[in-house]
Amino acid sequence: MDAHAGSPHTAENSFPTETTEPPTRMTRIQTLTLISMASVNFSSMICYSILGPFFPNEAVKKGASQTVIGLIFGSYALCNLIGSMVMGKYIVQIGAKFMLTAGLFVSAVCTILFGLLDRAPAGAPFISLCFIVRSVDAVGFAAAMTSTFAMTAKIFPDNVATVLGGLEIFTGLGLILGPPVGGWFYHSFGYEVPFMLLGCLLLVMVPFNIYVLPYIEAEPSKDSFFRLLLHGKVILICFVTVTLSSGLGFIDATLSLFAMKTFNLSSGYVGLIMIGLSLPYCLASPLIGYFTDKYPVTRIGFTVTGGVITAVCFFLLGPAPFFHIPSQLWLTVLMLTLIGFSLGMTAIPTFPEIIACAHEQGFEEGLSTLGMVSGLFGAFWSTGMFCGPIVGGLITQGLNFEWAATVQGATGLLAALLLLAYSLCQKRKQRVQENNQQADENSPLLNE
């Protein structure tokens, strides 16, 4: 049964797939969709980030080791990766609206169930339930976010980067508020209350989105992820995406311990430092989205420049041992702030650029292609979130935080430079083809 059945907005929800010129004002359905997407981003991210301040400590009490705790967090990213690919491929068959609302419902139920896990017996039962609930939650989250990206690109075809940049404000707010709000409720009311409240918040979003979101008709596509990845630029953009998310995962897993040990900071102050990463990203994303929508040719320039700045900041985050610079709190905070800004420069243009590459490859314009691009983007983002904490943690444990941050920066720099080299080669190739074509057109006149 379709989730849109019985909606009073059925006639209104039929909007044209193409417009001769963009409207000066948003339509009612666009406004409601924007509100819906913002609420999904905010509520999903605050539920995702709530675990950080107190779950590891509770898990240790239940007999979980640090390695197992890391695997519980990693399982979320792994299942999100698989879920993004599957949901992106079958978004038309499932239905974008149903996928989003069903994903929200699954995440809501899993969030509430996670709040009840403190009642599970310690040891293997608790650990097993953590893996199961967290993994199912990741699939629900993948469904909601994949459909959010696809529907945003479908409903705002002329302003994809602008809208996504604006929505990232709410993503950032969810990530910023999750740890302090979760920590405060945990200290005031115990383990269960934060999960219950936020799970109920997600449940409220389900009927709201059923009522508000439009139904989008689309035909399934015969195209595949493999064909999309045949485009060299898409592969390199995905590589850049992996380095971005792995950097964030690395910071989440290692920075707090490094800051506490090196600067003798409490967990509360570490949380404040992390705001230095999220806040610039929130502020920069809408501006970068608007600019790259207005001037699409700047997308690769922004992505490469942001990638290089991010890499340099990771080199100085430790700082790198070969710089022979002592670790200083002000330098760490400054680098996190610059990383937050440069992340917006790099991440926001990538999604619309992959859509453009898909159309260059001959992919039809429609929900099926948008879902495939959304799934691909989500899968590679999750790959980085899975690999970043694991690889960064291993290097930190084997060497130190400074070398781990250096390796992260070097990987990001490599990805940015490869994308730059590819883009320059493509431009040169295009210029040669244009010159040859112009010479062919002029040659008959010369022969006469």
**CATH topology-level fold name of the largest domain:** Growth Hormone, Chain: A
Q: Tell me the strand percentage band.
A: under 5%
Main sheet: strands, sense, barrel = none
- Head-to-tail CA distance between termini: 70 Å
What is the CATH class name of the largest domain? Mainly Alpha
Number of strands: 0
Unreliable segments of 5+ consecutive residues: 1-23
Helices and strands, in order, run as: HHHHHHHHHHHHHHHH
Give the overall average pLDDT: 80
CATH-level-4 superfamily name of the largest domain: MFS general substrate transporter like domains
User: What is the share of helical residues?
Assistant: over 70%
Based on CA atoms alone, the radius of gyration comes out at 23 Å
Shape: globular
- Tally the structural domains: 2
By secondary-structure content and strand pairing, the structural class works out as mainly alpha
Q: Enumerate how many helices there are, as a single number.
A: 16
CATH architecture of the largest domain: Up-down Bundle
Protein name: Major facilitator superfamily (MFS) profile domain-containing protein
Region (Disordered): 1-23
Subcellular location: Membrane
Transmembrane segments: 32-55, 67-86, 98-117, 123-151, 163-187, 193-213, 234-260, 266-288, 300-323, 329-348, 369-391, 403-425
Provide structural commentary.
InterPro entries: MFS (IPR011701), MFS_dom (IPR020846), MFS_trans_sf (IPR036259), MFS_Vesicular_Transporter (IPR050930). It is a multi-pass membrane protein. Residues 33-427 form the Major facilitator superfamily (MFS) profile domain. Residues 1-23 are annotated as: Disordered. The protein folds into two domains: 29-218, Growth Hormone, Chain: A, CATH 1.20.1250.20; 219-432, Up-down Bundle (Growth Hormone, Chain: A), CATH 1.20.1250.20. It has 16 helices and no strands. The protein has helices at residues 28-49, 55-61, 66-89, 91-94, 96-114, 124-155, 160-189, 192-212, 225-228, 232-263, 267-294, 299-317, 329-347, 350-360, 367-398, 401-447. Helix 5 runs antiparallel to helix 8 (192-212). It is globular and about 80 Å long. It starts with 27 loop residues before the first helix and ends with a helix.
